[in-house]
Amino acid sequence: MWRLLAEVKSRFYKWFAFPRPRRELENESDVVEIKKHFSDNHETYGSPRITIDLNEARFSISENLVARLMKQSKIPSFGKYSRYQKKFPVPDNTSKNKLKQEFSIKEINKVGVADIPQIQKCEGWLYLSIVQDFESRRIVG
């Protein structure tokens, strides 16, 4: 048993003394540069932008390698954010809410509701105006 353990021990030290591969050493130095550029840009750059920065800094590196090294090093990359959606103000020419959520009207032709849907046709857009009586549910105009 001791000879077996001695053999395993000798293999470990042979492996431990063996020089590391050149590509592994290059990857470590690339990860250091990637982390530097990532932190310099407020930790928001992904692999495409970091690749451009590294190539401008005279590092010859591909985007796929940067993406792989970022993934292995657990450096987060963020996708594109959706743009801010502009909120349009409510126009002043809208009519006031005269019903005030009171939907128990019992008189015919007293209150009407309207809608103007847009219909796209080959010639262009058509606008259909509909006025409906609130109580009888009939189309008035």
Protein architecture, described:
A hairpin with a 4-residue loop joins strand 2 (118-120) and strand 3 (125-127). The chain has helices spanning 2-17, 22-40, 47-56, 63-72, and strands at residues 112-115, 118-120, 125-127, 130-133. The strands form 2 sheets. The protein has a two-stranded antiparallel ribbon with strand order 1-4. A two-stranded antiparallel sheet has the order 2-3. It has 2 domains: 11-72, no CATH class; 96-141, no CATH class. The protein contains 4 helices and 4 strands, in the order ααααββββ. The protein is rod-shaped and about 100 Å long.
Q: Briefly, what is this?
A:
The protein is of the alpha+beta class and about 140 residues long. It has two domains: about 10-70, no CATH class; about 95-140, no CATH class. It has helices spanning about 1-15, 20-40, 45-55, 65-70, and strands at about 110-115, 120, 125, 130-135.
From the N-terminal CA to the C-terminal CA, the straight-line distance is 101 Å
DSSP helical segment count = 4
Largest pleated sheet: 2 strands, antiparallel
- Say how many strands there are: 4
Strand numbers in spatial order across the main sheet:
1-4
Tell me the strand percentage band: 5-15%
How many structural domains does the protein architecture include?
A: 2
Low-pLDDT stretches are none
Cα-based radius of gyration, to the nearest Å: 35 Å
Helix content: 25-40%
Order of helices and strands: HHHHEEEE
Specify the structural class: alpha+beta
Shape: rod-shaped
Mean pLDDT: 80
